[in-house]
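User: Some background: our group keeps a shared notebook of sequences we're curious about, and every so often someone picks one and asks for a predicted structure to add to the entry. Today it's my turn. The entry only has the sequence so far, pasted here. Could you supply the structure so I can complete it?
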Amino acid sequence: MSPRPAPNPPDEGLAIGYQPSEPEADVSHLDRLLPTLVRGGERPFLSFPDHLSHQVTAELAPLLALFVDHRQGSYAATPFDHGAREYEAAVLRYFAALAGAPIEEVDGHVAASPQTALLHGLAVARRGLPAPSVYVSEQAHYDVVPACELPGMNHVGVRALPDGSMDPNDLRVQTRLRHEAGALVVATCGTPLRGAVDDVSELSAAAAAGRVHVHVDATAGALVAAHSTPVPAWSLAHGAHSVTLSGHRLLGLPVPAAVSLVRRGQRAPVRPGTAPDRLLASSGSGLAAVLLWTRLRSLGRGGVAAMVARCQGVAAYAVEQFGRAGAGPGRFPGSLSVTFDRPPSWVVDKWRLECFGDLAQITATGPVTHTAVDELAADLSLGRGGAAA
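Assistant: Of course. Here's the predicted structure to add to the notebook entry:
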């Protein structure tokens, strides 16, 4: 029996010691790390948007030197505001219009991550429904169930249709079994696998046996859905009570960012002598607000629409090319996600594909071009023929 190989010793050059390190040595470490993270720039990461163009980097880099404290919400000034709340207000107006509601009818804030924005949406819903069951599609984002478990909320799984959207008929059955406590339905706009969009109008009608709050997790698909033709029924305009949105993946931000919007009728009343209870403690992010504002301003509404249309065109092209390669592609209408039969491991590793069981996936954002699609399709065809790398 051969001896077990000894574990690799830690690199003492990376240890954090008592004395300050030499700046030049640390810069050298980071210079060596960067090519490792981007694989030398030879192949894009086609499953997950990891693109930061030189233009985006130049726009956003100076903002990383700022500290902007928004822990008291979007409507309360703090000593660390530095005037950034006006920028957050502009971002909230943009996303409120995107979600189909005047800013006067919603409360909102920019959050440091989609997870904290989701927790805020669930917390607001629970104030109106003290002990609801939370109905979650089997195709929902994997953050949703843990978010329900944190406050001890009972979650009920709901089947998905073949296209990846939540099944209204199964939701109808499940909610009628537990209608006394009310229903908190978490719809998804942009499921992780297929980019599917749940129909908010149908789900609201299906769960109408008792009190209903529909929260939409649209962090992955809001920008795409809002600029699709036709526009799917995903937003506040279609009956949702709260929605979590984002754009950091599609916009190419260097850090996560999200927006939480809640209809004002859903917010708990303000108690005398207290501040408006609009967000979870420390969930706001002034930096995320300024980063979102910078990218959205540089693109404009028309630029965002054009970017979405370009990405949708590449996704449609991928379906065509992967079909010719015999890879069995699938795509929800308008989605940037394209699934296909899982190829051999050398193709997965070469293109850094994310796989879900027998399926692999690409997301047609920044680094996914027609050329990249052609090259991947050629490898898919080789893989089906049994060729090795």
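Suggested note for the entry: The two ends are 32 Å apart (CA to CA). The longest helix spans residues 286-324.
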